[in-house]
# Entry
Amino acid sequence: MKTLIQYEGCIVSPTTRTYNFHVIDAPGETRQFTVQVLSESFRLTPLKFQDGPPISFERVQHEIDIETQELHALAGLNISGSDIQEYLVKHHPQKRLGKWEQSRSTSAPEPKPIVTPPVRRPPSGSWPWVHD
# Structure
């Protein structure tokens, strides 16, 4: 019998989105899988919220495909930066180009750079500053 993977929904927290799957291997044999995607992955990469379920589904499917009798797939999985890059190349090839891909590492997405506010300058004509 072919393995059936059913998406059951998503739990959103401030730091992650957790996608839940119900897997039926054979009649009466079921398993639960969860896949976590860091919330920052949706802000710092071209990955969109609507990509969450399919990238997670593909991750569960991949883990089930490579499992053996001795080594079963883990029930709790995470999406890494390399998972995101592979997904974007496969499903959104035009989105993979750009600043994110050129600067990304093989680990999780890098945080946004700190932006400092502009320096406040005194009104013109008041230079040099004189303090009494």
User: Anything to note?
Assistant: The first strand starts at residue 4 and ends at 12. DSSP finds four helices and four strands in the chain. The chain has a mean pLDDT of 80. Residues 4-103 form one domain.
